[in-house]
Each structure stands twice: as structure tokens, then as C-alpha cells.
Design brief:
alpha+beta; Nucleotidyltransferase, domain 5; two-stranded antiparallel sheet; two-stranded parallel ribbon; globular
Length: 138
Amino acid sequence: MGALNPINLNPTALVTESNCDQEAMKVFLKEIRKEYPKADIIHAILDNARYHYAESVKEEAKRLKIKLVFLPPYCPNLNLIERLWKFLKKKLKKNKFYDTFEKFINAIYKFFKNIKQHKKELKRLLTLNFEIIQSESV
């Protein structure tokens, strides 16, 4: 699971070998809150995974003062974290082989620890400026 502050590119990640579910999501929300302890409210932009809508997740978010904002269905291009995952895969998997899961996980940790070295590329990729396309009247 991952979150990204689009302003300063600070990532928050929760690496788990288990499936993502509502319990993992609640742990992840706590990790996000730890990153920004002084923030009055945190806005978390989410896709439409079922566990994001669980009542226990909503209650935990409310308790942690995290506002859950849901993207429209089938719009992964609007989700900045999806772009980050694509970039990470490009950097870590292209023409590379990890003979153990541990080496792969270590590469992911190293990527996030040194994410600032990719700042220039990420600023272009993770822009908040979206082009609005006007439909032509026929």
C-alpha cells in the first residue's frame, strides 16, 4: 500500500506479504497520520477498492482526522500513486532479476529511501495539472 504527498513527493508505504484488506488499510492510515502528526486534517485520495469502503476503515479515518476522497471508477490515470507504482516497476523490474523475494523487497525499500534522486522525473510524471478536454457539440 502506498501514499504520496504530491507537493513534496514524500511517500508513505506499507509493505506486506499478506493481501490488502480493511485491517491492513487501518494500519496504513495510522502510518499516514504518523507522517503528518501536526496536520489538522489529511486528505487521502483513494481508488474504489472494496476495503476502502469498509465501515471500520471509515471509522478509523475519522478518528485519525483523515478525510477519504474517492476517485471516480475506472480512472487510474487520476491516481498519482498508480503513476508512482508504474515508475517504480520501470526502475526496479526492467531488465532486472531478483533471485529472492527479500532482495526484491530490499530494492523497494532502497527506492523509497532514495526517492529524492528521481525528483525531476517524478515532478513531470506526478503533476497535479490535468488537461480538461471539452467535448464538441455535434
